[in-house]
């Protein structure tokens, strides 16, 4: 498939070149008229964001749209690796917000990122237990107990990778009962009481409003997850994309993210 | 009448071009994705990619659980189909709807429903667990339950349809000759619907073999215990696409081999 991509791009360029002359004047005119009303940015903005950003980015979206009434932010939320695959396969996206550096690096290596990614938030891990902590989980040591039902994120998902590192740091070999495909799936099973404990992000525990309780992981074992953000080379909306990334990094954007439990870099 | 008949025969010799074009387009819907899969297959690395114990465990688990689900479906699904086809009872339309539900429901919804019913804190799962210590989620039996839930409708619907279309005079004749109801069922009814029964069983097995959504939601994902081939593909997609493509190819080959091998019986029914 990748062999055909240059052909498709060439065809698109031809089409663009053909209609470029006639349409340029009118679009330029439109931009100047809306600029007087607001920031001058307009159109759809496709933001591919990690699933763990679901709630926080919904609020970031509203705030950004309020500041830029011409822009309609469309959030594409999924596991970072799924988003990476979509971008590498040529799915249109303006901004990519990943839950770890690994997936961002792959997109950078493929030459899809415009400029350099920037870390916009950090997230910490926490042990998640059902409300009331029926199994009486007190720390990472309990993850070795074969009598408990233990879930982690799958090894290749960021939360699974970080969770295993934390257990390794604590010298615990976990008796795992399930490797869930993403952090939300893990959270659902903990919330339903079907699992006794799992490792998720602090922000995930916070997002359940008490349905899942958190047990802190000691700082010396904990893993800090860096979230990088970047604009993409093939962004359909190259004007609004950097504006959105800048907004996420701004004091206003950071305040929203902090309220969901993310810490600023 | 005769001229129409001849005309019909002549048309049959050469099908209308419109039908050919649309039919081939229809076929393309099924074929194109597999061509994509084949184009991406790393043929030279295939043996190495498939030799890991992850693939072996998943293949074994997929075969065991899909066959177990088919066996359970045969034991309880055929009687259910018989009751639905032969016995007038209030709410039969509702029962028929319920049986078809897993076909239209997203499997993830089915998995969540199973979790709420049979999970450790579930409606039936909680008393069951307290009485027997049995725990279905995160166990191989959980995979079998999820597979059965999603796949059994294929058997029930096929067998029910066959029973409805059956010429009941044969059963009547057997009964007048002194055969009991049980003997009639065993010696007359079941042999007569055999092609449908086999087609239903094959479809049920194939659906169970490819089951993903209900399994991962209800039974979780652990290598050797609940990680079937579709789950292994999904997990591999996150890390190593070549492995994912290789496992997908195994699934396509195994499924296609079974379906094609049984196509004779298949066509008699459909």
Structural overview:
The complex is a heterodimer of chains A (265) and B (270). With 265 residues, chain A is an alpha/beta fold. Chain A contains nine helices and nine strands. Chain A has helices at residues 5-37, 54-67, 80-88, 101-109, 158-169, 183-191, 202-207, 240-249, 251-259, and strands spanning 43-50, 71-78, 95-97, 113-130, 150-153, 178-180, 197-201, 212-216, 224-232. In chain A, strands 1, 2, 3, 4, 5, 6, 7, 8 and 9 form a nine-stranded mixed sheet that branches. In chain A, α2 links the parallel β1 and β2 (71-78). Chain B has two domains: 1-40, no CATH class; 50-269, MetI-like fold. Chain B has 15 helices and no strands. Chain B has helices at residues 2-13, 17-40, 46-50, 53-86, 92-104, 107-118, 125-132, 140-165, 169-176, 181-192, 194-209, 213-218, 229-239, 241-261, 263-269. The longest helix of chain B is centred in the first third of the chain and has 34 residues, at 53-86. Chain B is globular and about 65 Å long. Chains A and B meet through α3, β6 and α6 of A and α2, α6 and α13 of B.
């Amino acid at each position: 498939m990748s062999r055909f991509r240059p052909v498709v791009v060439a065809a698109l360029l031809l089409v663009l070149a053909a209609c470029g002359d006639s349409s340029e004047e009118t679009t330029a005119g439109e931009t100047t008229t809306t600029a007087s009303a607001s920031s001058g940015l307009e159109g759809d903005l496709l933001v591919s964001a990690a699933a763990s950003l679901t709630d926080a980015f919904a609020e970031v979206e509203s705030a950004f749209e309020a500041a830029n009434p011409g822009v309609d932010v469309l959030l594409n939320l999924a596991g970072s690796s799924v988003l990476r695959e979509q971008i590498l396969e040529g799915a249109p996206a303006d901004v990519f917000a990943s839950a770890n550096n690994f997936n961002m690096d792959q997109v950078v290596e493929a030459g899809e990122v415009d400029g350099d990614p920037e870390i916009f938030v950090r997230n910490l891990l926490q042990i998640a237990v059902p409300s009331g902590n029926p199994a009486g989980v007190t720390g990472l040591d309990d993850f070795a107990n074969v009598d408990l039902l233990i879930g982690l994120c799958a090894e290749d998902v960021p939360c699974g990778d970080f969770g295993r590192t934390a257990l390794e740091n604590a010298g615990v070999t976990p008796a795992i009962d399930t490797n869930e495909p993403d952090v939300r799936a893990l959270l659902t099973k903990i919330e339903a009481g079907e699992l006794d404990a799992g490792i998720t992000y602090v922000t995930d525990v916070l997002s359940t409003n008490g349905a899942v309780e958190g047990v802190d992981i000691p700082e010396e074992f904990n893993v800090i997850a860096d979230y990088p953000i970047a604009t993409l080379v093939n962004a359909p909306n190259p004007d609004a994309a950097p504006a959105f990334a800048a907004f996420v990094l701004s004091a206003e954007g950071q305040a929203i993210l902090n309220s969901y439990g993310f810490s600023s870099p | 009448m005769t001229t129409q008949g001849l005309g019909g025969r002549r048309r049959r010799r050469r099908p209308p071009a419109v039908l050919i074009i649309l039919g081939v387009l229809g076929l393309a819907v099924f074929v194109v994705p597999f061509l994509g899969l084949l184009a991406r297959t790393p043929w030279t690395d295939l043996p190495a990619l498939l030799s890991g114990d992850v693939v072996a465990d998943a293949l074994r688990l997929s075969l065991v659980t899909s066959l177990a689900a088919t066996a359970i479906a045969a034991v309880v699904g055929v009687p259910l189909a018989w009751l639905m086809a032969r016995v007038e009872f209030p709410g039969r339309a509702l029962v028929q709807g319920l049986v078809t539900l897993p076909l239209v429901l997203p499997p993830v919804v089915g998995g969540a429903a199973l979790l709420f019913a049979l999970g450790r804190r579930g409606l039936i799962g909680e008393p069951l667990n307290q009485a027997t210590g049995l725990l279905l989620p995160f166990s191989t039996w959980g995979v079998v339950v999820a597979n059965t839930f999603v796949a059994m409708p294929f058997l029930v619907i096929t067998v029910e349809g066959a029973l409805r279309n059956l010429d009941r005079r044969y059963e009547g004749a057997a009964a007048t000759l002194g055969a009991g109801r049980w003997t009639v069922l065993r010696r007359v009814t079941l042999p007569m619907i055999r092609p449908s029964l086999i087609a239903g069983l094959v479809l049920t097995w194939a659906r169970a073999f490819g089951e993903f959504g209900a399994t991962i939601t209800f039974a979780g994902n652990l290598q050797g215990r609940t990680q079937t081939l579709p789950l292994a593909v999904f997990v591999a997609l996150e890390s190593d696409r070549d492995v994912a493509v290789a496992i997908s190819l195994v699934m396509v080959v195994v499924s296609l081999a079974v379906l094609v091998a049984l196509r004779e019986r298949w066509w008699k029914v459909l």
